[in-house]
Design goal:
By secondary structure, the protein is an alpha+beta fold. The protein is built from twelve helices and 14 strands. Helix 1 packs antiparallel against helix 2, helix 1 packs parallel to helix 5 and helix 10 runs antiparallel to helix 12. The protein is elongated and about 95 Å long. The mean pLDDT is about 80.
């Protein structure tokens, strides 16, 4: 009787595919990542496969390529903050692979599930850390959508093999292409670290100053309430208390800038969050500055804490109101777009644009607008923290800001947030 060949296992196909994967000289590393994620999605029959690398001294994990099989699309730029998901990142440092049949109930991934996986329909996760020189530098992430997936031994072997291939390609490129691919993000995060250090110093001063101001305003209130004090003294006391309260408000803003609290980042639709925020935005802008919202495309989700997105939009609306001198239309546009990062790499984004027809910004001022404590407002009318906070929040979300302006022709603040999915 003729011999029948044994059926080939998925692991055999995986190893054959990886063995055939040859990257020609001169191919950019992001192209290599694209081929690897396509291979991973095909072999494991999953919807989403991604390669993520640590940035910002391993305080954040940034996606350098995410392939969605049903749409045949690639994206990048999504950023996870390590402090937001301690159990998941601890597991990466201890295991060759992290197989979660139920991402919802697995203690290693449950935090990630609520914030990131569930909104995208991901039920099972198989991740493998990328080691270079004995150090974890990133992770290859395999995301399954549908009924819970039991990861076989062959699946786990393949995930580990894929992580090893990524490590070899990065090492072969001697990190040069990785540095290019992450150049924009690294520059932004370096600036964020500088702002963090400055904010820490300011917060320390603000804490002590707030305590002093509390004493000053307390005694001023006692004097103004004293029936034996004359009207002149009581008036001075009220002025002291008022100035003290302004100082307390400033110190609160300084401390919030340095320690904004838990981010609670999760997958959201910016169009929905901003639409719900409209009554507040209109109240802040005033009756003479109508606020309009145009959702050109409702498709597009991002990974950010809703209150952080609200704070970005609120700060930009306040700036627009001031530029209009309290009279004129403030327009907000939300759209799903394809554009390029500052280093020229392509990306898929949700654009949030806040525009006004106000005074515009001169080139000299434009170069400084995101610096903390820089303001063009009269003394006592601005802290100079509004746009610094915008920059801080957008950077931590993996995005970037472009400003289009001309004197006398208004200003557009265009915020680009990386999309987490090509679907709505």
């Amino acid at each position: 009787m003729p011999d029948h060949p044994e059926p080939r296992r998925p692991a055999d196909d995986a190893r054959l595919l990886l063995a055939k994967l040859r990257i020609e000289d001169g191919t950019k590393l992001e192209e290599v990542f694209g081929k690897l994620t396509e291979a991973a999605a095909g072999v494991l029959r999953i919807e989403r496969a991604g390669i993520w690398l640590f940035v910002d001294e391993k305080r954040a994990l940034r996606c350098v390529d995410l392939f969605e099989q049903s749409k045949a699309t690639h994206s990048a730029g999504i950023t996870l903050q390590v402090d937001d998901f301690p159990a998941y990142f601890a597991a990466l440092s201890r295991r060759k692979t992290v197989p979660a049949e139920s991402a919802k109930t697995d203690p290693r991934t449950t935090g990630l599930y609520d914030a990131y996986l569930a909104p995208l329909g991901v039920t099972s996760l198989l991740d493998a850390p990328i080691y270079v020189g004995g150090e974890v530098i990133g992770v290859v992430c395999h995301e399954h959508i549908g009924p819970l997936r039991e990861w076989t031994t062959e699946d786990r072997d393949f995930a580990g093999s894929m992580a090893d291939v990524v490590a070899l390609k990065i090492r072969a490129a001697e990190f040069e292409e990785a540095r290019i691919a992450l150049h924009t993000q690294a520059s932004q995060l370096a600036e964020a670290r500088r702002l963090d250090a400055l904010a820490e110093m300011a917060a320390g001063v603000a804490h002590d100053f707030r305590n002093i101001l509390t004493i000053i305003t307390g005694y001023a209130d006692l004097i103004s309430a004293d029936s034996t004090a004359g009207p002149i003294l009581s008036g001075f006391a009220r002025q002291i208390a008022s100035a003290g309260q302004r100082g307390v408000k400033l110190t609160a803003e300084l401390m919030e800038f340095a320690h904004p609290g838990p981010k609670a980042a999760r997958v959201i639709r910016p169009s929905e969050v901003i639409a719900a925020q409209l009554p507040l935005l209109q109240a802040v802008a005033g009756e003479q500055c109508p606020v309009t919202i145009e959702v050109r495309s409702p498709v597009g989700r991002v990974l950010i804490a809703p209150d952080q997105l609200e704070r970005v939009v609120l700060n930009l609306v306040v700036n627009a109101r001031d530029a209009l001198q309290n009279q004129g239309v403030i327009s907000i546009v939300v759209d799903a777009v394809e554009d390029r990062y500052e280093d020229g790499l392509p990306g898929r984004f949700v654009l949030v644009e806040v525009a006004d027809g106000g005074t515009g910004i001169s080139p000299e001022v434009l170069a400084k607008i995101f610096d903390p404590f820089y303001t063009t407002k009269p003394r006592g009318q601005g802290t100079g923290l509004g746009l610094a906070v915008v920059s801080q929040i957008v950077t931590h979300a993996g995005g970037f800001v472009r400003v289009v302006t001309a004197l006398g022709r208004g200003t557009q603040f265009r915020i680009f947030f990386p999309r987490v999915s090509s679907q709505g």
